[in-house]
Amino acid sequence: MTGLQVSITTYILTAGIGYGIAVVIWLLSKAIVKKPKP
Amino acid sequence: MDFHSILSVFQGVTTLLASPPTLVFGRLILVLLGFLMIYLGRKGILEPLLMIPMGLGMATINVSTMFFDPLGLHGGMGNLFVEPMAGATTDWIKNAADMNYIMGIDWLQPIYSLTFSNGLIACFVFMGIGSMLDIGYVMCKPFQAMTIALFAELGTIFTLPIAQLFGYTAKEAAAISIVGGADGPMVLFTSLKLAPHLFVPIAVVAYLYLGLAYGGFPYLVRFMVPKRLRAIKMTPPKGISNISSGQKLTIAVIICVLLCFLLPVAAPLLFSLFFGVVIRESGIKQFQELIGGPVLYLSTMFLGMLLGILCDAGTILDPKVLPLLILGITSLMLSGVGGILGGYVMYFVSGGKVNPVIGISGVSCVPTTAKVAQKIVSKDNPHSIVLPDALGANVSGVLTTAIIAGVFINLLSN
Fold this sequence. Notes:
The structure holds 2 protein chains of 2 kinds. Chain A is an all-alpha fold. Chain A contains 1 helix and no strands.
């Protein structure tokens, strides 16, 4: 792989894992963080 | 007794006189640079915790050369501080013998060999950083934080092919480009894995620029973001006070296990970071005070001291090292630009509610860049509170840099 290919592959993988973690955090937050009663 | 005999008592002078003119010039420049770092650290312009030990180390090591080279690596001249090249040959038996011998001579060799060159000190620093992280800020707005952090990796991504144009191999280029992640421990870890022969200069360049970049980032922000946008009012996220420490602990444990499962090669650093977070949220005050205090500060002190001591002119004047000075600053500046672009993306996506200045905090040195963002915004609008959002991007920046380091090492190690 050339340097540019390594960079692009790395960025796509990082974005995938990063947003995957964001989804996990969002789902877990929805599931476990209780909203205050109005 | 002649003049030369008397002169030989002062080996700092005689080794200087016996060195080639370029090396003498280099030594004098580095001594002056060391003085400047101490001055700027004392004035608070650069980070004093790192710059003062590093500056003193740099100034001292370049005048402490003597006719002493027990391993025969430097043409008869050396010092009594540390020998970074000890044990770096392909002969394992010679390496073991050299290490055993030099450990009993150079006073900083045990610290260098047992904590610095194996990444332990980087893990200690990460534990300390983890103990200061509040992942509640990421939990409030995970997608915003991650988007900014990904944009702020622009330097890391683009510097790799640029470094190859300078003649570096893919592994060396990747190790250099991680400087754009602005995360000192990550730079140490990646360069040890991918380019151990460039570990010393990359680490020195990274920490030198990390100190300088934080002084330079406010100018970059003011250049890219007009005053009208810098003054956009933000308030702390509403849900932040509803998140309990137990909930933060649960998420930290799950994300730690998930990331270490995906990227075992970066697991030591990821574990160390989340260990700090978990200790913080579990309420073990004794451990939190230990890793956020003595462990973090002792590691930072030795890190600064060793980085300065490793700035010997003989190492820094290597022709392969000089382009690192250009590539390091390129990487950090591109990341800063990328982060601000990420801030603009969130500004447009949110319909103008997000202050684009928070983009700079995607460049991940926790919590410095977040504080930089708040300081800039406060000057233009004292009622705008961007720190919580900025810290969210900051924490996500640490995660994206760790992921990139793990992917680089996996892709390039084979």
